[in-house]
Amino acid sequence: xxxxxxxxLAISAxxxxxxxxxxxxxxxxxxxxxxxxxFRDMSLDDALKAMVADQLGLCELxxxxxxxxxxxxxxxxxxxxxxxxxxxxxPLTYFTGIKQQFKDAGVDLYAYNYSFxxxxxxAEIDRGFDFAKALGVKFITASTTxxxxxxxxxxxxxxxxxxxxxxxxxxxxxxxxxxxxSFAKAKAMSKYFKxxxxxxxxxxxxxxAVDYIEKNHEDILLxxxxxxxxNEGPNTIWGxxxxxxxxxxxxxxxxKYKIPACxxxxxxxxxxxxxxxxxxxxxxxxxxxx
Length: 290
Hints:
globular; 290 residues; disordered N terminus; 8-stranded parallel β-barrel
C-alpha cells in the first residue's frame, strides 16, 4: 500500500485513529510540514484528519485552533476578556490531551504559534510558555512587534524556551518584523529569540530569501512556504508568484540545513483547504525529488 493510499484510508476513521505509525513527510532530507492555519476553515479534529489524508507528518499549531477549549469548532476569536480569563484558568491537562491527539494521529506537533500582542498581560505571556511545554513542542512561533518582543524576552529567559519571530511584509511600520534588520534586533534582545522566516512575505517585502537563509540558517527554526508577488503583491498559486520556493527547497536539500518547511496555504484556491494543501505538498515533493 502506498503512503498516499494509506492516508486516504486513515482519514476515514472518526475520530482520528489511535496508534497510527508516525507519518513521514521528509523528502531527500528536507522535512515538510504544515501550519494548521492552512486549515482555518476546519475544526482541530478535521484539520488533523486532513493532515493524515495529505500525509503531512509535522505541524505548527495555530493557537486559535485550540483556544477556548472547543476543538470541535472552527477557529474563532473569543471576546478579548473571555480569552484572557480562559488562558489564565485552563488546566494544562487540556494541552497534554491535544499533544496525545497529535501523537495518536502520527503527526509531530513541532511548534506552537502563540502570537504575543500588545494587550497581553504578563500572566498571559507566561502562560503561553506553559502551554507550549504541555504541548511538548520545541519552541513558540509568534507574529508580534519589536516592542512586544522586548516585553516577552524575560519570559523566554525564565522558561529557557526559544521564540521564533514570524515576519510579514509591512515596511511602513518600523516595529514590524519585515526586514533582516528587525530580526537582528530581536536576536540582540535574547539568545532565545530566533526566526520563523515566511519566504512569501519576505519576497513581498523585496528581500532575497535564499541569501538570507544562507547567511542566517543557524538562527532560523522554521520556514513558511507560500508564494507572493514582490512589492507587497498578492498571494498566488504556487509557481505563479515571485517567491523562490524551488530555490529555497533546493538550498535546504543541498546544504542539508535541518530547518523544517511548513506549508501555509493563503491563496484563494478552487478546492477546499485539504485539497489545496495537498497541491502545495506535491509541488514541494516534485522539487525535492528532481
